[in-house]
Amino acid sequence: MSPRLLSLSIAAFVALGACASQQPLRDNAPGTRPASGTDEGELWYAMQRAEEELQRSPMRVRDPALNAYVKQVACKVSAGHCQDMRVYVMNVPQFNASMAPNGMLLVWTGALLRMRDEAELAFVLGHEAGHYRAQHSIRQWRRMKDTSALLSAFSVLAYGFGAPNTAMLGSLAAYATVFKFSRDMEREADHLGFAEVVKNGYDPKAGADLWSRMLREENTLKYLPRSRVFASHPATEERLADVRAAAAAISDPPHELGVAPYRAATRPFLENWLDGELSQRRYQSSLLVIQELLDESPGEDRGVLTFYLAEAHRREDGPGDREKAAALYAQAIAMPGAPAGAWREHGFALAQAGQRAQARDAFQQYLARAPQADDRAFVQRELDKLGGTP
């Protein structure tokens, strides 16, 4: 956007915001959209431009089956607004989901990694749909008019266009921060989403289960600031108490969790999402996340989860971490589903311990299981150093 066009757009946008400040909220019936020339119409236009960029982003997870599954769950808890929402799964390893004013719903893979079942996914998506149904974005936008925050918000939207990948996603996260739904709005979205979760037969305790884990994880990040995205939300303790009370108040509650369909949709991405989790270098929280996944995992996932738990210890590299990692690599290779890398790292641990013959066997197992591995030449050199029978 050129400086001149940007200046004109800001002036027009501010004028529209000022003129529209007293407008009542439109009837947000399913399938409707704001009229052009209104402040809400301009807000939608800005987000549609951002959405066009998002659709081309390499950070999108484009797997048709996963996208169809998440959209299906979102539709269930949308209170009839299915046609108004587009769901985008973004390959970002943090816990987040957000709803734009035009129905663009983003779910980050870090959130999908941390969920256990369809009921927890429905709880999160129902909350985001609640923001859309209650028109929180335009309500917040009108509160910001005539303030410097309005120009800041517009700049976020304007410069978000054309920004590459992570920068663009950062702009969308910044958009969520700029608007900062009030805590009352967040509570209203929780209430609307919770009602849809129960109405569709999901276990009302799902939200409490999810927020209990988020609270434990948050407590491992005591030296880091809270996420900008969640800064405006009620404190996790408060939110956990609210969802527990709401669930307890329901007589004869439904009990559907949807473990099997959730697992079928997400399991193909487990290794990729665990790689992303460790890429954040927040090893204390990753150790908790992976250990809790391991504690609740079916047998076929224990090999891969044990391997990544070992990786978290190895990369943390604190007192005793190398020994813990070595023990976990040894356990992982005896479990179903262990990735080939478990044999490679087991081999390095054995070599470091002076167990040359066993290390050699582990490296050979790795090369046999991953014949096209990028590091094949490197591992072969390690084998050569160990000597012995080729």
Kindly state the percentage of residues in helix.
55-70%
Going across the biggest sheet, name each strand in turn: 1-3-2
Number of helices: 19
Per DSSP E runs of 2 or more residues, the count of β-strands stands at 3
Q: Largest beta sheet, briefly? A: 3 strands, mixed
The poorly predicted ranges are 1-12, 14-18, 159-163, 227-232
Q: What Rg do the Cα atoms give?
A: 24 Å
Pfam family, one: Peptidase_M48
Domain Peptidase M48: 62-245
Protein name: Peptidase M48 domain-containing protein
Keywords: Hydrolase, Metal-binding, Metalloprotease, Protease, Signal, Zinc
Structural summary, described in words:
The protein has 390 residues and is mainly alpha-helical. 63% of the residues lie in helices and 3% in strands. It is built from 19 helices and 3 strands. A 3-stranded mixed beta sheet has the order 1-3-2, with helices on both faces. Strand 2 and strand 3 (104-108) form a beta hairpin. Helix 5 packs across helix 10, helix 10 packs antiparallel against helix 11 (236-248) and helix 16 packs across helix 17 (341-352). The longest helix has 17 residues, at 3-19. Mean pLDDT is 87; it is low at 1-12, 14-18, 159-163 and 227-232.
